[in-house]
Amino acid sequence: MMVIIVVVILSLNTAVLGQTSSSSLPSSSVNRTQTWTDKLNNLKIEFTYSPDNPAIDAPTELKFNVLNLQTGSHLKDLSARIVVLTNSGGQQRSFKFTNISAADGNFSVKYLFPDSGSYQVISKIDSKDSSALASSFNVFVPFQPPGAINVMAS
User: Fold this and answer.
1) Burial zone of 13 (CB within 10 Å; 0-12 exposed, 13-18 middle, 19+ buried)
2) Is residue 22 assigned to a domain?
3) Predicted pLDDT at 90
4) If DSSP states are collapsed to H, E and C, what string results for 59-125?
5) pTM, rounded to two decimals
6) Which residue among 29, 50, 121, 138 sits deepest, i.e. has the most Cβ atoms within 10 Å of its Cβ?
7) pLDDT in tens, 123-146
8) Is residue 24, in this structure, part of any structural domain at all?
9) Domain contains 27
10) Burial level of 79, CB count in 10 A (0-12/13-18/19+)?
């Protein structure tokens, strides 16, 4: 339910700012980079995370690159909000990062995944030069036996 509410809010924010929905679903490649494309505004967001196999309660860097589709150049002077959602561990959880600035179109945040399972990373990115861009990406945190969690964190 929380996922639906956040997606609706992001959709409403996007609609209010004049962007029609021409974004495609994220695509993924071998190097785990996911791409969200908005052809209407000639923009794309590349998302990746490090390490490749996130561990419970260990820092994972969520990385974003915002590019012009035609030129491949980074968008400048961005502000962003990121929401991480999950229903893992039997309860809905969300965590928000706000007031993220990116002068050169690249930014990242660090997140500690509390449980194994599937997570949705939603971004809303604003630029002076274009409409707001909303995107969604997926991160899977594999199950880790209780003893493995302490070993990995050391």
Assistant:
1) middle
2) no
3) 79
4) EEEEEEEEEECCCCCECCCEEEEEEEEECHHHCCEEEEEEEEEECCCEEEEEEECCCCEEEEEEEEE
5) 0.76
6) 121
7) 999 988 777 889 999 999 999 887
8) no
9) no
10) middle
